[in-house]
Structures are given as C-alpha cells and as structure tokens.
Amino acid sequence: MAARTTRVVLIDHPGGPEVLRVEERMVEAPSAGEVLLRHTAIGVNFIDIQHRSGRYPLAAYPATLGIEAAGVVLEVGEGVEAVQPGQRVVYSFPPFGSYADLRCVKAEHLVPIPDTVGDDIAAAVFNKGITAHYLLHTTYRVQKDETIVVHAAAGGVGSLLCQWASAKGADVIGVVGSQEKVATAASNGCAHVVVHSREDLPARVRALTGGAGVPVVFDSVGRDSFEASLLCLRPRGMLVSFGTASGPLPPFDLFRLNTLGSLYVTSPGYVTHTQDRAELLWRAGDVFAAVADGTLRVALGKVYNLADAAEAHRDLQGRRSIGVSILRPA
C-alpha cells in the first residue's frame, strides 16, 4: 500500500468543544481481519460529547472521537471475506475514532449499505436506528394501542422512536424542550407533544391516560427528567433510561420503586445488543428496511466539515440541533 495520510479530530484531555483539534497522521495497511475505509459521512452522537467532556472517560490521551461512520472499502486485510474493495459499508462500534478521513476497522463490525440507502442517511441512522430497534423490540416491546412517553421527541433517537412506535400503532406522547420543536415532534408521529419547560409532564400524562399513567417512558435526558418520568408510569411500568444528556442520574433509593407502584428501571446499552454479528445484521436489516419503506424518515440536520466538529458539538450540546447532524470528510 502506498503511504496514506488522514486527518483526525482528537482531544488531549477532557473539556469543552474548544479541546477538539485536527491532526494529520499516517495510516497503516489493514491488518488481518481489518478493512481500510475512506469515510464519506460521519455520524455525530451525544455519546461523542460524553467522551469529549470526560463523562465517559477514555482509556488514554490523545484520543480520536467518534463511534459511527459510512464509507467505502479501499483495502482488505488477510482473511477478510465479508466485504470487498469498492463496497459501501457502515459501522458503529468501539474503539473510538470515526472522526477521520481514513481508518482501519475490524471487518466484523461492518454492515453493507443497501442500494436503497445513501451514505449520509446510513451514517445518520445506523447507531440511532439500531438503538431505537432494541429499545422498541427488545427492552420493551411496544404494542398497538399502548400510550407511551418519549423524551427528546425531536432529536436523533427520539425522532426514530416516535416514528417507529407510531407505525406499530402506539399512541405517542412526545416531550420536547422548546415550542420550536413541537411541529417536528408532531411530524414524527406524536399524537400529543409536551413542552417540558411549560407544562407539568406527569400531570399532563395522567390527564391524557385517565389517571392511569403509561406502561413505559423512554428517557435519554437523564438528571432533569428522571423524577418526572417515574411519576408518569402506571403500576409495574418501566422507565427506560438510555442517555444522560442533562447530566448523570441522582442517587436513588430503590425502595421508592416499590412505593411508586412496583416500577422497573433499566439502562440498556448499544454494545450489549450488537456484540453478536447475527444480531447486528438482524437489527441493521430491519432499520434499513424501515428506511426504505418509509416507516423511518431520517431528517438530516446540519452537515459540518470534519474540521468544524467543535461547532457540531456546541449545537448538539446546546440542544439547537433538529434532526441528525453529520460530519463531512474532505
């Protein structure tokens, strides 16, 4: 392989968006079981902010951020048969480092992109779509005619959760942070939209359910919404806490789950639901099929140059993003 260089976006220590910097590095040939990719679109996820800030500490520094990207296979290492040079693929898996032009990745983590899906959409939907898939089909199997609550209903995973649950026949109460996001949540299939800064969420949910509460709340906000989410649940309901955008959850006395109605709380993770390749391909196949048939509509947000990753982080952390943002390599 001829010598190649790549730009990478990395941090030398945890901090704010200002710690992100761009550096050029050499790229080695793919080792056995690996593939060299040329990234075409890079997903921006809230977990990238958690890694940058130190909320989820990284093993060593300097560290390159990013968990997700779509790209084209340039070269394959010894023993790789699942993908071929020239094939379009997408992935989302540690080790981190997708904020780059070129990268070597283990072939076992790559999923071919069907012809019906473009690279931008693949990078925007892969991690978030698979997350929505296991939340709705494994963590809590949402049924027709159930009323559910979804926080961040205009955001990345939230948008997909609302669309998919609505397509399954559920009555979705979407929660958003501002009036400007109400229309987006409604377009995602929410039958009711609550602006959490203006309304008492548990009271509204009780009013909409005849006082019963809901069987499940999907909450990616964390600290600021945890208590309200619990109070929305009916007896033996489940709070699915899958993100902490507002900060880590407060210390909690588990016996309160008993007194609030024998409630359940769970915190499912992406890696646990995709470690087995057959499971990864099943979930990815369902996501791409749902995109192709219109069940999932991926609203692409702003497209940033790779070198402008700090701006993308500021917008996402400030909750100014609507839809899914991506980074564009050179």
From TrEMBL:
Keywords: NADP, Oxidoreductase. GO terms for cellular component: cytosol. This is NADPH2:quinone reductase. Gene3D superfamilies: Medium-chain alcohol dehydrogenases, catalytic domain, NAD(P)-binding Rossmann-like Domain. PANTHER family: QUINONE OXIDOREDUCTASE PIG3-RELATED, QUINONE OXIDOREDUCTASE-RELATED. One of its GO terms (molecular function) is mRNA 3'-UTR AU-rich region binding. It comes from the Bacteria. Residues 15-327 form the Enoyl reductase (ER) domain. SMART domains: PKS_ER. Transmembrane segments: none annotated.
